[in-house]
UniProtKB/TrEMBL annotation:
It holds the Pfam family IDO. Gene3D superfamilies: 1.20.58.480. Belongs to the indoleamine 2,3-dioxygenase family. Keywords: Heme, Iron, Metal-binding, Tryptophan catabolism. This is Indoleamine 2,3-dioxygenase 2. One of its GO terms (cellular component) is cytoplasm. GO terms for biological process: 'de novo' NAD+ biosynthetic process from L-tryptophan; L-tryptophan catabolic process to kynurenine. GO terms for molecular function: heme binding; indoleamine 2,3-dioxygenase activity; L-tryptophan 2,3-dioxygenase activity; metal ion binding. It comes from the Eukaryota. The keyword Metal-binding applies. It comes from Anas platyrhynchos platyrhynchos (Northern mallard). Heme b binds at residue 317.
Length: 376
């Protein structure tokens, strides 16, 4: 891709077909849109500059007009969001870029897909998978699966993306109870994902994904060419996953005011059809009321099994988060992992990936789930 002045408009699919991020930027990008077409070019700003100065290489304004269908839009959003992340965090937490000078964030693909201009859960997990053998299955333990785009973190990061993906996949039969699943790149079968695949050798990058409530970027990010004021967005978190929100609505779980406010804010990062799906479940007649009014002991037991399974999932998740953050922190303390990719981000130690105080939040959400049990 030629260095440009950032002003010309380029069809996104043809622009994307001509680049592959170099490993210098910490990514290897198998071109998802056009077969094996590969070329290594610098995108965004050069590492040593990154301030919109004279030595920077600018990416042209990209247009979505030539993208075909939902899949290409999702892929384009995935690719551009990852490029933006690489550009912003290339020097770790200390050297954060504050302005997306000539950056891929100026691509339009967040508008038609209704997604915010940041790497969200829908990008990082839902759209970010492929079968190595296209005719093979995508069952655990992920042997035939790979993320389309990964971040530094090796197997640990691969597991983080794919296990979350498999949890989404395992939830599909549950989602079908309410309705056909919303139109997203969700998979089909019903595996039992092993969360143990996520080994805590390196922390997940989530806290680096935010420029809201993140001490490394307290003012947010200026999207050059979009707004002169900095804008704050939360990064990809499974709190943006539709499935848990849908189960909460279906089972009539009532979280605390603070947790509800955070979780509802996370809905802004979901693809609009997902959000609409959750809201529709919320408006539907209450399942819990139906079970209560029926006086049927078997119905009540089945309902309570669902509540217990959901609370158990949340307890398991708390254990994993504790392990991940504590182990990563201890390893960093013993300098077992090198470079900025191995250090637990300051924001992750104190706060969650979307900015919540993680443990009190996660425990509160687990406990209010248990409160949903119907007593005999
Ligand atoms: C190493 C693995 C993981 C870590 C470190 C982690 C970390 C976190 C953190 C810090 C939060 C707090 C919310 C925020 O601020 O973002 C959170 C929330 C959440 N995470 Fe994870 N997570 C992990 C794996 C998973 C997996 C595999 C799933 C499965 C879908 C998942 C589902 C959720 C959900 C649904 C929430 C929202 C809270 C709730 O509804 O219970 N997480 N996670």
């Amino acid at each position: 891709m030629e260095a440009g002045d950032g002003k010309e408009e380029t069809p996104l699919s043809s622009a994307l077909s001509r680049f592959q991020l170099s490993e210098d930027y910490g990514f290897l990008l198998p071109n998802p849109l056009v077969g094996d077409g590969r070329a290594t070019v610098p995108v965004g700003c050069r590492k040593q500059q990154g301030n919109g100065g004279a030595g920077d290489v600018w990416m042209p304004q990209l247009s979505t007009r030539h993208l075909r269908g939902r899949e290409e839009l999702y892929l384009a959003h995935l690719v551009l969001s990852f490029i933006t992340m690489g550009y912003l965090w290339q020097e770790g937490e200390e050297g954060t870029v504050k302005v997306t000078a000539g950056s891929p964030a100026r691509g339009e693909c967040h508008r038609p897909s209704g997604s915010p201009p940041i790497l969200s859960h829908a990008d990082f997990v839902l759209a970010n998978w492929r079968r190595k053998d296209p005719s093979g299955c995508c069952c655990p333990p992920c042997r035939n699966l790979d993320p389309i785009i990964s971040l530094p973190g090796g197997e640990s990061l691969r597991g983080f993306i794919l296990v979350t993906f498999l949890v989404e996949k395992a939830a599909v039969p549950g989602i079908k109870v309410g309705r056909e699943p919303p139109a997203v790149p969700l998979p089909r079968a019903h595996p039992s994902p092993s969360i143990a695949l996520c080994s805590p050798s390196a922390p997940p990058p989530c806290a680096w994904l935010s420029w809201k409530d993140n001490p490394a970027m307290p003012d947010g990010l200026v999207y050059e060419g979009v707004s002169e004021e900095p804008m704050a967005f939360s990064g990809g978190s499974a709190a943006q996953s539709t499935v848990l929100h849908a189960f909460d609505e279906l089972l009539g779980i009532r979280h605390s005011q603070e947790s509800t406010a955070f979780l509802h804010r996370m809905r802004d990062y979901m693809p609009p059809p997902h959000r609409a799906f959750i809201e529709e479940i919320g408006r539907a007649p209450s399942l819990k009321q139906h079970v209560l009014c029926s006086g049927d002991a078997r119905l009540r037991a089945a309902f309570n099994r669902c509540i217990t399974a959901l609370a158990d999932f949340r307890s398991c998740h708390i254990a994993i988060v504790t392990k991940y953050i504590a182990v990563a922190k201890a390893k960093a303390g013993r300098a077992e992992v090198g470079g900025w990719a191995g250090r637990p981000p300051a924001a992750l130690e104190a706060k969650g990936t979307g900015g919540s105080h993680i443990f009190s939040f996660l425990k509160s959400v687990r406990d209010t789930t248990r409160d949903g049990l119907i007593s005999a």
